[in-house]
Every structure is written in C-alpha cells, then in structure tokens.
C-alpha cells in the first residue's frame, strides 16, 4: 500500500535534532557540543560546528538544521552578516545569538532579524536548556514521512 505512515520498528528510538553552532571560539564550540550531548530529555542531538559565519552559511546550504546558535563577533563574516544570509535561506529555523558583546545596537539588529533568543556570555546552562526546549517546540511540525510498500 502506498501513502501509509509506517511507525518505527524501534518504539523507544529517540528523535534526533540537528544543531549548528557558529562561533569563532573553539572552547565555546566544544562546551556547547558537550552540553547538547549531555541532555537526557528524550532527544538526541547531532551537533555541527563552524568557526565563522561563512562556514556556517555553507553548512546551512548543505542541510537545514533544527536550531542554530551563533556568535555576533567573528572573523571572515560576522554574526549579523551570517544571520541575514541564514534568514534568506530559511526564515523558519530558530536562531539563538550567543555573545559576550554588550553592543545594544547589534542586539537590536539581531532581534530585528527574528532571532529566537539573545543570550549573553557567560550563559546559564539551565536557562539555555530551557530556551533550546522552547525553540525546538515552537517550530512548525514536520509532516510524517510517507513510506510506500
């Protein structure tokens, strides 16, 4: 039969979400990767990282992530430039800005571009986990995958 929604043969298989972290600080990329790998709330995270905005845009072109975390101040292409390009590629992906910058003009511009949250560094991991859960639950639901027999 075609058009039938097939349930997984593994009833306890955890859903996987793709997360893209764009930050020029290797330590931040590592800490955030470990943060997503330590979650125990029923979702598996596949984390990809980029060291600057241009790399992040290229990664977005290769495949849509479920969530993007991006720094504002980076070499090659800063976060605001990358944010504009990411929004041009997909306006529905939740994006969180993580930054040590206290530049209110940049924060206002990021919020104008439709970011989900603006998180100052150093960040509180409990708050970050809460924001991630909210961001991933507010997107449009994806249709079930149809499998033809």
Summarize the structure.
By secondary structure, this protein is α/β, with parallel strands linked by helices. The chain is built from five helices and seven strands.
Q: What does this protein structure show overall?
A:
By secondary structure, this protein is an alpha/beta fold. The protein has one domain (4-147): 3-Layer(aba) Sandwich (Rossmann fold), CATH 3.40.50.2300. The protein has 5 helices and 7 strands, in the order E-E-H-E-H-E-H-E-H-E-H-E. The protein has helices spanning 26-37, 53-62, 79-89, 104-112, 125-138, and strands at residues 4-5, 16-22, 44-50, 67-70, 95-99, 117-120, 146-147. The strands form 2 sheets. The protein has a 5-stranded parallel sheet with strand order 3-2-4-5-6, sandwiched between helices. Helix 4 (104-112) links the parallel strand 5 (95-99) and strand 6 (117-120). Helix 2 runs parallel beside helix 3. The relative contact order is 0.18. Residues 138-149 have low confidence and may be disordered.
């Amino acid at each position: 039969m075609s058009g039938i929604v097939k349930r997984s043969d593994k009833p306890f298989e955890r859903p996987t979400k793709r997360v893209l972290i764009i930050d020029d600080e290797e330590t931040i990329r590592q800490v955030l990767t470990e943060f997503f790998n330590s979650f125990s709330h029923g979702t598996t995270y596949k984390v990809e990282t980029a060291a600057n905005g241009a790399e992040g845009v290229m990664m977005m072109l290769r495949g849509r992530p479920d969530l993007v975390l991006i720094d504002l101040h980076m070499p090659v292409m800063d976060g605001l430039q990358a944010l504009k390009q990411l929004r041009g590629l997909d306006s529905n992906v939740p994006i969180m800005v993580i930054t040590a910058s206290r530049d209110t003009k940049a924060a206002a511009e990021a919020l104008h571009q439709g970011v989900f949250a603006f998180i100052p560094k150093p960040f509180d991991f409990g708050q970050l986990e809460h924001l991630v859960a909210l961001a991933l639950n507010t997107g449009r639901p994806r249709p079930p995958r149809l499998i033809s027999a």
